[in-house]
Amino acid sequence: MTATIEVLRIGQRPVRDDRVTTHAALVARAFGASRIYMTEANPEIRQGIRAINETWGGRFEVEYVDGWRPVLHEKVRQGYTVVHLSMYGESVNDVQGELRRRAADGAAKMLIVVGAKKVPREVYDAADYNVSVGGQPHSEIAALAVLLDRIYQGAQLGQERFGGARRRIVPSRHGKRVESSAYGDGDGDRPGAHKVQ
Amino acid sequence: MTATIEVLRIGQRPVRDDRVTTHAALVARAFGASRIYMTEANPEIRQGIRAINETWGGRFEVEYVDGWRPVLHEKVRQGYTVVHLSMYGESVNDVQGELRRRAADGAAKMLIVVGAKKVPREVYDAADYNVSVGGQPHSEIAALAVLLDRIYQGAQLGQERFGGARRRIVPSRHGKRVESSAYGDGDGDRPGAHKVQ
Description:
The structure is a homodimer.
Chain A: E1 4-10, H1 18-30, E2 35-38, H2 43-56, E3 61-64, H3 68-77, E4 81-91, H4 92-103, E5 109-115, H5 121-126, E6 129-132, H6 140-152, E7 167-169, E8 177-180, E9 192-195
């Protein structure tokens, strides 16, 4: 039992950032968060994530909100630990121990704030931790992935959170192996493990 | 001294994938690779990375190639360890030890292949390792970041590789601190550490 972790995506630009926002949502889902909040997002993002839940399992949620401020301040009031990813923050190398201890408490809740450009000062002030994954410009998708990987130390890559999956990958040194459930989605899958390629 | 690590981006779709490809290049640069090869890419990607090198240091290179096949097979001939990131591969949790040992050899060379959709069988066969960062669909940007983070175990986040930087971030719990060199780029920076915000 680990803490509830949610993600708040702020500052994305419609259309231009849709693919990056989609990747951020997929990473949040695949790396152990339960939900992502986003503003001004293309409705196709939520539909896409729902389709992925149906095929690959789990109950990750995409929630559209009118603005990020009420979400941020409500979570602060609710006692969430707020972690803001920023290249200006403290190094994840230095704070990962504290974040792991907090996340190990099953009753704890954590909100990870993922900005695009020009995050307002208000977010830096509201955050319990401003955390950098290196002091070089790179990618909020990468920062989110590495932060969650550091917190969970690889345990998030297990399949336990992905109940109800129609398809499940069997790790393979060469090639592709996928197990399909009896409720295959009609694209030629048969129950049981088989080679796709 | 660690191995030379290069990245080969394959299968991206022009325009549609430009931002994702840019993120992949930035992650390769920030997380310890020396070069990324890409095909059919927007020339602005290389210009953008050069501008980032000028400001933030280092000599990361973007190299455009006509096709990925010659690069892949040339690297195989040159004795590179080829690591292909694929959700169908072996778990990074299981192979990270081997990859770290290989990367710890300063004379070794590694090519990380990062695909978009539908990577041909040929790549699976050519790779020494097909590695998954979880068996869930997510993001090649995240997969590249986590793989490099697992190999370098956080050491890649130091500033040693980024010589010649005009700007350098001083990690900060709240707010933004940036050091500018005496060769500031004229956008108002003065030498020495100062608060930007």
